[in-house]
Amino acid sequence: MAEGDVTSTPSTPVAPAPDDEAAIMLRRDRLLAALTLMAGVGLALGLPFALSAGREFFLPVTASLVIAIALVPLLEALERRRAPSTLAALICVLGFLLVLNIALAAIVVPATEWVQLLPQRLMRIQNNIAPLLDLYDNLQHFVDRAVKTMASDTQIRSSQTTAVAPPNSILELAATSAPLALIQMFFSLLLIFFMLAGWTRLRRRTITSRGSFSGAMATARVIQNVVDSTSAYLGTITLINIGLGLIVAGVLWAIGMPSPLMWGGIVAFLNYVPYLGPIFAAVLLTLGGLMSFTDVKLALIPAALMVGLHLIEANAFTPFMVGRRLTINPVLILLSISFWAWVWGPLGALLAVPLLIILQTIAGAAGKPDIAGFLFEDGTLTHGPETPPAP
C-alpha cells in the first residue's frame, strides 16, 4: 500500500439509546395525534355541508335506518313465531304504512281544509287580536297593512285553492306534492324492507366475522344496545304522544273546538321534537283558536290547555316511563335538534333525538379517545421528554 493512503473501515451503526427511542416514539405518536385531530376537525366542518348538499340521498337513507331499527323488535317477535324474514319484514313495512295513512287521514286532510279557510278568517283573527294590539299603535298599523295585502292576494287565489281536493292517502300526498317526494318515499320503503329482511343475517355475519370471542360479544352487545335504546325511546315516546294527543283532542272537543282529532294529531306529531315542537304546537293552537272563536279569551284556551297538559306530561309521565336509562342531556338535545334542522330542515329535527341516541350508544361502547388530552400533555412543545433527575 502506498505511503499516505488511509485505510477506511466501514462504520458499524450505533443503536439508539432506549431514552432516544422512547423520545422518537413519543414525538411520532403526538404527530399522529395532531394529524388525527386536524383530520377530525376538518371532517366535522365539512360533513354538515356534504349532508346538506346530498339531502336527496342521505335524508331518506338515514330516516330508513332509524325506522328500520325501531321496527326490529316487531321483526324479531314475528321471527320468534317462525315467520320467514321476508314475510316479517313485509308485515312491518305494511304496518308502518298503515300508521302513516291513519295519521294522514287524521291530520293532513282536515289541515288542508283549515288552510283553505284561512283567507276567510283573517278578519276574525284581526278582530280578536285588535285589543291586544291597541297598546302598540305602530305595530297595529303594520299588521293592518300586512293583513290587507295577504287578504287581497289570497282572495285572488281562493278560487283555485278551494277547488283542489285534499289528499286521502300518503301516496296521493306524495304524488300531488312532487314526483321527487314519491321517488324518495318508494326508495325509503324499499330500503326499510331490505334492511329488515336481511337484519338477522347481517347481524349474524357481523358478529361471526370478529376475530375473537370477546370482540364478537362486544359487537353483539353494541348492536343490541342500539336496537334496545332506539326502539325503547321511539316506542315509549310514541305511546306518550298518542296519549297526549287523545287527551288534547278530548279537551278541545269538550270546549267546542272544530276538528279536535286533527289538533290532537298535530300535538302528538310535534311532540316528537323536544322543547321546540310543543312551542310550535301552542302557536298553531293559538291561531286555530283565533280562527274558531270570536272571544279572544276563549280563543286562547286551547293553547293554554295544551301547554298545561304538556307540562304535566313532560315533568311527570315522560321521566317516569322513559326512565334514567334513556335520559339525555338537554344541551345535547338542543344542539342535535338545531344541527339536524339546519342540515335537513323539519325532518332533520324529527330525526335528531333518535340519531343522538344511536351515536351516544355507539360512542359509549367504542370509548372516547382522548386525542386532545394526549396532544397537549406536558412536554408536547419541547423537543423531547424531560430528562429525569439523576439519583
Structure characterization notes:
This protein is mainly α and 391 residues long. Helices cover 79% and strands 0% of the residues. The protein has 15 helices and no strands. Helix 2 crosses helix 3, helix 3 packs across helix 9 and helix 9 (260-270) packs antiparallel against helix 10 (276-292). It starts with 17 loop residues before the first helix and ends in a 16-residue tail after the last helix. Residues 153-164 and 378-391 have low confidence and may be disordered.
What is the count of helical runs?
15
Largest sheet features: none
What is the CA-based Rg, rounded?
30 Å
Percent of residues in helices comes to over 70%
> Oligomeric state of the chains?
single chain
**Between the first and last Cα atoms, what is the distance in angstroms?**
52 Å
SS content category: mainly alpha
Overall strand count: 0
Sketch the topology as an H/E string, one letter per element.
HHHHHHHHHHHHHHH
| Residue-averaged pLDDT | 76
Overall body shape = globular
The low-confidence parts are 153-164, 378-391
Q: Assess the beta-strand content as a share of residues.
A: under 5%
Lay out the secondary structure.
Layout: H1 18-53, H2 55-80, H3 85-133, H4 137-161, H5 170-177, H6 179-197, H7 199-208, H8 213-254, H9 260-270, H10 276-292, H11 296-299, H12 301-322, H13 330-344, H14 346-366, H15 371-375
Helix pairs in contact: 1-2, 1-13, 2-3, 2-6, 2-8, 2-14, 3-4, 3-6, 3-9, 3-10, 5-6, 7-8, 8-9, 8-12, 8-14, 9-10, 10-12, 13-14
